[in-house]
Write a structure and sequence with these properties.
The structure holds two protein chains of two kinds. Chain A is built from eleven helices and two strands, in the order H-H-H-H-E-E-H-H-H-H-H-H-H. Chain A is an all-alpha fold. Chain A has a domain of 195 residues. Chain A has a two-stranded antiparallel ribbon with strand order 1-2. The radius of gyration of chain A is 19 Å and the shape is globular. Chain A starts with 6 loop residues before the first helix and ends in a 13-residue tail after the last helix. Chain B is an all-alpha fold. Chain B has a domain of 213 residues. Chain B contains 14 helices and two strands. Chain B has a two-stranded antiparallel sheet with strand order 1-2. Chain B starts with a helix and ends with a helix. Classes of the chains: A mainly alpha, B mainly alpha. At the A-B interface, helix 4, helix 9 and helix 11 of A face helix 6, helix 11 and helix 13 of B.
Chain lengths: 292, 314
Amino acid sequence: MLEHGAVAPQLFNGLVLGAFYAIVAIGLSLIMNLTGTINMAHGSFMTLAGYLAYAMVSRGTSFWFALLVAPIIALIVAVVIERTLIRRLYGRDPVYSLLLTFGLSLIAEGIYHKVFTANSVPFSPPPALAGTVALGFMNFPAYRLFIVFVLVVVFVLLALFLNYTRFGLRLRAAVQDTEMITALGTNTQVLYAINFGLGILLAGIAGVLASGLLGLNPTSGNTLLMPAFVTVIICGMGSLYGSLVGGLLIGVAQSLMTLFIPPASEVVMYVLMAVVLTIRPRGLFGEEGVFG
Amino acid sequence: MTRGRIATIAVVVLLAFEPVLSPFIHVDVTIASAALLFAIAAMSANLLLGYTGLPPFGNAAFFGLGAYGAALSLKYWHVEFATAAVLGTALAVLGALVLGPFLLRRRGIYFGLLSIAFGQVFYFIAYRFTDVTGGEDGMNFSRPFLLVPSLRLRETAFYYLALVVFVAAILAFEAIVRSPFGKTLIAIKQNELRVRYLGLDSNRFVFVAIVISAAFAGLSGALTGMLNNSVGPLMLDWHQSGDFVLSTILGGSGTIWGPLVGSIIFVVGRDIISSYTQEGWQIILGALFVACVIFFPRGILGTALQLFAAKRHG
């Protein structure tokens, strides 16, 4: 018999999980929209930020500092890789950049294995976020509330950045017509690099936060990658808010399914995906013509 | 006899001597069998990637369905070798008939995403439904006899069986890509819109290509499972699909023999390097992906054929 009180926390857990999916999916689709690159190494960058934060915290730095700095280091690594390797494949068949980033993720996993072994390393949130918070109708872990808070802030900042800055404007224009914006004098190579870095910054923040919640091992980032892919497919390309709604939808669907039919919790998002593709092939919020 | 035919026969004769040469070239017969079977799966990726222009990152699902189909029919029905192989292949084809209509919905990178995502469904099914599939551990079994109980397949016999199946597969593959159907696939790769304007339902061709591809992958999976006497969920994982695509590109996608070249390098290389270091193999494999994509996008055979053609013309 199902306890009635179990549904509300589980719904909330689903929203937390969904917020992760959304942030990762937004990073993926930023990169995919502009350059047609499916970044299979996205999960490895999340793990990278996680390990960096772990290394900092275990050497005595504060969690807050690590949360800020680790994603930025991941961003720098990402831009270097984008400039030296991924850049060469723009304009070629997307299968090549997919294979390249797949190769990068294998290299990264191999290195993580060597440095940190295959076992999970202990990475727990700081004491200030350890307890639970009474929400009136239920008690909820403080760290999860903190995650929601950070991800909301990140999302708002991103929306402001894309909609109200000159750079965001150029980015959105480049997605629609790269040739035109080049002709108007924008250096698209700089756009590509910053855009890639931005996607990885989001992944890095999610990676550090997720490490404290879901654990940290060489492949932990990849567990968030597949739901993020499905989010991108369900929502379609080119919609920030679409990814948010889709991510939350999948997170909640998964969490509730864990309550009712546990073995089906992973499969439920694929069922959702199949249904959406049948009814609306371009995705729920996809614009017609963007990536067919 | 054409030049191509002579080359084909030469390669097959060379492959037939592998068990004799094995002590000298230090390639175990079992590894050689694995390479041939791997090549059949890589051919299945090649049909979609090299001839239809679709990035197939879900072919491990069909490969794994073939393996699990064979393993389950051994577990529940105690069938012999050939029946298990046929049933495994049939399960893979069934999987393609179910997934095909969804995969068809998109082209280009979206097809890649869809194939990764839908392929993972079977991974989770195998992983989760422990009672039937053995979950994370997979299933172990002893190799069944072939047709009659007295016909036991030891390693060398298995190699010749794999060689026969491989030759049949590559001849079938050659016939498919040279047929009007195969030409239509190539036309879809080059310009699908034009194919549609010519009055052909391109979706139907892509669907059939996916089903044929699944049959090749399923056959390979069923035989690979019975070569190792075990199956596991990693056979269904998208990393496995990536390995097939890499081998195809390494050898030369869009060429008939490319997947064999890539598969031999991949399987033999993996065997040699991973006997020293497991993480080392992963790093080298990753570097191979990167190098192959940046320096050899046409693959080894593709580059060789191009040089050869350039020389002849000029």
